[in-house]
Specification:
The chain is of the alpha/beta class. Helix content is 32%, strand content 14%. The chain has 14 helices and 14 strands. Helix 10 runs antiparallel to helix 11. The protein is globular, with a radius of gyration of 27 Å. 43% of the residues are buried.
Length: 417
């Protein structure tokens, strides 16, 4: 370094020397900081959401299968809107270990596989399920950050969630057609930052009519139930889109816990009609009309018709991605469990709304997760229609849900409680 001594003498020379040293040290610190930033984050992609999201509405349409949506899309205006105005896929996956409601909802709240959170029974086992088992849930994160988490449940066995998870509001709504109205009334009175809403219409119809293909009076009853669910989903979305403060500040996530087989129910985990489900996202910062697999090529892989049965390697989009997505949208962070893994979230396609997340590419150099050989749906043809009350029958399987075949009279009668 070369310094010129001032005419004022030694004191001014020292003063100038020190100021120059401080200047150069400041420059060096800036360079080191930039170098460390490059070393620590070699590649970065936008986070799912870093915009003005203040509310998340997470809906499960219980038992919804994609092929029914595709077949009836012109009669499902709300789901069609979510496809056209948001990002979606009709080839997401339920949990491979169980295609049952309660275990898969634990996965949707924690982003953990059933084997990881350990709750495998499709029932309320009583008591409180300990946090040591599930680590952290979206409800823990929302409530822990001083926000309000709410559950609008369509089945009484969801009481296990009320007892085990922190939430500001819980309501088991036995009359399924009141769910949307009760949700809207609660949001008007005391808004929930995270709302879980349970629409059970497809699942209820599938069980009642013993499959998703049963025809009654010329109509596929399961399809009719999907149309009902679409209507109530529409009521919720219309409210959110046209009401302050939710307008323009709400992310809507809709998926399913499992599909439903043409004949029977959803218990067979290897049946593609049971494990193949839809996943929809709509709201600010979401690319319109986009395919979620196209947006997440570095962390997700479309499994085709396969059923990935491991959690190593490149994964499909699963319904349990909803918890990570909701946490990311609300800006609540996790300290443990699957929700703390940044690779668990989904990118939704609007870079101007994105932050910078150090997601690494897990799919380019990693083989897909192991898959089972796809077993086609049961080939037994469903009955053309089920028999109504007082119609002739030869066995209980001939009668519609809630009826049984009278042994002597051979007519369908109401089951006795």
């Amino acid at each position: 370094f070369f310094f010129r001594q001032s005419q004022a003498g030694t004191h001014d020379w020292k003063k100038g020397y020190i100021s120059r040293i401080r200047y150069r040290m400041a420059i060096m610190k800036s360079c080191i900081a930039m170098l460390l930033a490059v070393m620590i984050i070699p590649s970065a992609v936008p986070c799912a959401i870093k915009g003005d999201i203040e509310y998340v509405v997470h809906l499960t349409i219980d038992g919804l299968r994609p092929e029914t949506v595709e077949k009836n899309l012109d009669q499902l205006p709300t789901l069609r809107k979510m496809i056209e105005k948001g990002a979606s896929t009709h080839n997401a996956r339920a949990e491979w270990l169980e295609t049952q409601t309660t275990p898969t909802h634990w996965s949707m709240y924690t982003s953990l596989a059933i084997e990881q959170h350990g709750y495998s029974k499709d029932e309320d086992i009583g008591g409180v399920y300990p946090k040591s088992e599930y680590k952290e849930s979206i409800f823990d994160l929302v409530e822990g950050n001083g926000l309000r988490a709410c559950m609008f449940a369509g089945k009484d066995k969801f009481a296990i969630f009320q007892r085990s998870l922190p939430m500001s509001y819980y309501n088991y709504i036995s009359k399924r057609d009141q769910v949307a109205d009760i949700f809207i009334n609660e949001m008007k009175e005391d808004p929930c930052h995270y709302s879980f809403v349970h629409l059970i219409h497809p699942d209820a119809a599938g069980h009642k009519y013993k499959g998703a293909a049963t025809i009654l009076n010329g109509k596929v009853m399961y399809d009719e139930a999907v149309k009902q669910a679409d209507k109530y989903l529409g009521d919720i979305i219309d409210f959110v889109e046209n009401t302050v403060p939710f307008q323009g500040r709400t992310l809507i996530i809709a998926s399913s816990d499992h599909g439903f087989a043409d004949v029977g129910n959803h218990a067979k985990t290897e049946d593609i009609q049971n494990y193949k489900i839809p996943f929809y996202v709509m709201g600010p910062c979401v690319a319109q009309g986009a395919d979620l697999y196209d947006l997440n090529k570095s962390t997700r892989q479309d499994p085709g018709d396969g059923l990935p049965h491991s959690y190593e390697g490149c994964q499909p989009i699963r319904n349990r991605d909803a918890a990570s997505l909701a946490a990311d949208a609300l800006g609540v962070t996790a300290s443990s469990g699957a929700l703390s893994d940044m690779n668990a979230t989904l990118y939704l396609g609007q870079e101007e709304c994105g932050g910078s997340c150090p997601l690494h590419d897990v799919c380019s150099n990693t083989p897909p997760a192991n898959t089972t050989t796809t077993i086609p749906p049961v080939s037994v043809a469903p009955p053309a229609s089920c028999k109504n009350k007082r119609e002739s029958c030869s066995s209980n399987t001939d009668c519609c849900g809630g009826l049984k075949c009278h042994r002597r009279k051979n007519i369908c009668k109401r089951k006795k409680n």
